Amino acid sequence: MPKDLAFTEAVVVTPPDQTPVQARAVAMLIEEVAARSRVDWRTSGAIPAPGIPVVLAGVGESAAALLDAAGAPAAAMPREVRAEGFTLTSMVTERGNMAAVTGADDRGLLFGVGRLLRTLRLGRWEVALPDGLQIATAPAYPLRGHQLGYRPKTNSYDGWSLAMWEQYIRDLIVFGANAVELVPPRTDDAPDSPHFPLPPLKMMAGMSQLLAGYGLDVWIWFPAMDRDYGSEPAIRRSVAEWSEVFAALPRVDAVFVPGGDPGHTPPRLLFALLEQQSHALKSYHPNAGMWVSPQGFDAAWMEQFIGILRAEEPAWLAGVVFGPQVRVSLPDFRRMVPDRYPIRRYPDITHCRECQYPPQDWDLAYALTEGREGINPRPVDQAHIFRKLAGDAIGFISYSEGCNDDVNKVVWSALGWEPDADVRTILQDYSRYFIGPDYGEVFAEGLLALERNWRGSLAANTGVDVTLRQFQVMEKAATPFQKRNWRLQQALYRAYYDAYLRARLCFEEELETRATDALRGAAAVGALRAMEQAEEILALTAVSPPAQDLRARVFELAEALFQSICMQLSVPRYAAIHFERGANLDSIDAPVNNRDWLLYRFQAIRSLPDEEARRQELNSIVNWSSAGPGGFYDQPGDPRQRPHLVVGPGLEEDPGCYESVRTGFADYIPTHRVAWCRHAETLYDTPLVMRYSRLDPAARWRLRFVFATDDPGNAGADPRDAISVFAGTGALLGGPMQKPVPTAPVELAIPPEVIVDGELEVRWTPAAGRGRNGRGCQIAEVWLTPHWRHGDAPGAG
To answer: What is the pLDDT of residue 1?
Structure first.
């Protein structure tokens, strides 16, 4: 292992002909070293006396001249000349310890400084660097960026000052990001936020100025918000509105207009609008390009979109974007789009449900509590998503709505530079640089453990408690300065939240089991008394809840995160805009068992006129998941309870789930079983398929199932959401049908002729050509139940 060279007393030597971006890169180096070590490096234009450590920083021939003057060996000379590339070396020379970072261009120096910062050992009053560094590298992808949207919808960004934005931009630079996407004042958000330190356009201009100072690309995500662009006056009004933004920003390199979410303009009208917007954009920023996506388009609009690209090849269009709600896979999209148009990815790295890339095998309890925008380090998942689809695009600007996805941003940034980089090494750099030199290994392992917390059954995952102990050790060892670090606070919040949730889930599942056992005693004690006993057991959730010390710590960390990074983890406490926007402190005690559904059913059962009817209803509750002798029951959204589901290629081969079944989630409704909040779903035209074998030919089979929905307010309202149920033989079993409101099981007879050699295939098939988010074919529970002729049931006679 190479020894460390001391650079505590180093002088940073730079050429005299620095550009403003080069000077900013050097300033970033000096200021970030000081912030992490308290060591103030000084700068000079001349090589200092022998014995003083030297850090040489420059570009091209000027850097080579400096190295030559310092007597550096040939190995230290610049070797990476590709755009944005750099050479980073460290050595002991006759004059003393020396490090050199030389860029192929301004950005090369900037990213070389970032790599140097990641590699330095920055302790309190101490700076060191491994001896013998010889790094020559350039990025694999030319576009590596993230959307940083200053708008009320975000879970933290709307409270950030320009100084906070600059620090975060620097943090992204250190890991290789070269672009940031801003959002305009008018989107589908509220026009104001109680957290805004500046008006939106003023902040947007300030961020553009910051990015220009570092030489980074400035993109704008600019949705076409008006309902109708079918007239020239409407287009002129829109051009005037957008031009006000273009004029206010000192730098704009590209504008991306999503076709939907928000947006609802047919492709022909959208292209006509964007052609004029492109001309306006270039009048303020001559080198800027206009990009567009077919987000949310149905099959007809997608055909029209591709048809325009192929037939007309509009010259004003710079490229197209692949992101959420594009109804074909990225490889298919690349084959459809003419080669002249580059494709940029727009990966959703910020959401955990109702999103482009949901976590694998996520427990329902997490979905009901930690929600759609939880703190979500998913380094292994994100690396797989990046690598599986990277070859069909020039790079990415991620979709982000807050700092909850900070780890994911760093993973994407680093892989955009070096796709084969080891994920654990990236996390070690992250941990050492952001938390402290002693945290490189332990914090990186903690982040990987947080991702494992989210895999599989939470009740069975004892690793969740191990993860908490790992972080408690780090928490105890942290200095007061480190305990104020928002990245440490985020990881601690997740570790405590996960462990508290697991304790509560195990407790509430046990209570439900005991309550169900009490209902089984209705024949002995009577239905009314059985329900009273069950209610007394279920009430223990509030009377003696578990792990209150963990819960209290979660609330303390939520307050710390609001103070450190303006993270809004609660609507009433921190003025978050909505509970879905990361405000999972408000749902920390949301039910994770069937308590509310049981109480709701008890209320109805008590009103029944006689004891026999009451007992029958209680029996249906106790035996809810029974499909009878010889029958089959599945919860297709739960990987542990879906033996008959045809999953498809799976997330390893199909991370966007264009051909695979994935698990989806719905909001909690007190009158619903919690099982209805988790479902199997397919996207767009892909059917959901279940297969059964060795069915008894003596039975008459019936199919019973529960449609689920993650959009209950619109269930049954749109004919495009209708679903038909077919047998594998092609026979229509039912439909087209809308999801029933309120949610209730649907039952269909299975004609004997569709069962062939004891095998049955059932296909839930959505209406063809669906657009928007593509979700809709969603099934929560399925029973295949035999009805027997007298004497034919298994065990009869």
So the answer is: 60
- Cα angle 435, 439, 445; round to 5: 110
Tokens of 239: 């051009």
What is the token pair recorded at 777? Answer: 């074919």
Point out which residues pair with 778 in neighbouring strands: 681
Structure tokens at 92: 């002991």
| pLDDT value at 790 more than 80 | no
Distance of CA 94 to the CA centre of its chain: 51
Give the 3-state secondary structure of residue 482.
helix
Pair 357, 347: CB distance under 8 Å: yes
What does the pLDDT look like over 412-465, one tens digit per residue? Answer: 999 999 999 999 999 999 999 999 999 999 999 999 999 999 999 999 999 999
- Determine contact, residues 633/783, Cβ cutoff 8 Å: yes
- Inter-residue contact 599 to 390 (CB < 8 Å): no
Three-state secondary structure string covering 583-618:
CCCCCCCCCCCCHHHHHHHHHHHHCCCCHHHHHHHH
The encoded tokens of residue 475 equal 């928490």
Q: Please report the sign of the dihedral spanned by the C-alpha atoms of residue 479, residue 485, residue 489, residue 490.
A: negative
What is the per-residue pLDDT for 796?
Answer: 39
Closest CA to 401 of 144, 148, 173, 585: 148
Q: What is the DSSP letter of 391?
A: G
pLDDT band for position 794 (cuts 50, 70, 90): low
Query: In which element (H, E) is residue 167 found?
Result: helix 162-174
Taking CA atoms, 259 is separated from 25, 271, 292, in Å, by: 37, 10, 7
Question: Are the C-beta atoms of residues 49 and 9 closer than 8 Å to each other?
Answer: no
Both tokens of residue 514? 């005991």
Model confidence pLDDT, tens digit, residues 356-410: 999 989 999 999 999 999 999 999 999 999 999 999 999 999 999 999 999 999 9
Radius of gyration in angstroms for the set of CA atoms belonging to the chain, rounded to a whole number: 30
d(CA 437, CA 33): 12
Averaged pLDDT, 128-156: 96
| Peptide bond between residue 766 and the one before it cis (omega within 30 degrees of 0) | no
Q: How far apart are CA 563 and CA 778, in angstroms?
A: 40
State what percent of residues in the chain have pLDDT above 70. Answer: 98
579, two tokens: 């509970």
Cβ atoms of 502 and 459 within 8 Å: the answer is yes
Give per-residue pLDDT as tens, 258-312. 999 999 999 999 999 999 999 999 999 999 999 999 999 999 999 999 999 999 9
Question: What CA–CA distance (Å, rounded) separates 403 from 487?
Answer: 9
Contact present, 657 and 651 (Cβ < 8 Å): yes
pLDDT at residue 797, as a whole number:
32
CA angle 488, 665, 489 (to 5 degrees): 5
- Tokens read off for 458: 């939470």
Answer yes or no: are the C-beta atoms of 249 and 204 closer than 8 Å: yes
- Contacts of residue 130, defined as CB under 8 A and 6 or more positions apart, other chains included, come to 2, 3, 4, 5, 90, 119, 121
Q: State which amino acid sits at residue 301.
A: W
Cβ contacts of 564 within 8 Å, gap of 6 or more: 484, 485, 486, 489
Rounded Cα gap, residues 452 and 360, in angstroms: 10
pLDDT 10s digits, 646-669: 999 998 999 999 999 999 999 999
- pLDDT bucket at 14, cuts 50 / 70 / 90: very high
Contact present, 492 and 471 (Cβ < 8 Å): yes
Look up residue 16 and give its two tokens: 């005299």
Q: What angle do CA 642, 644, 649 make, to 5 degrees?
A: 85
- Which whole-number Å values give the CA distances from 304 to 230, 330, 766, in the listed order? 16, 18, 22
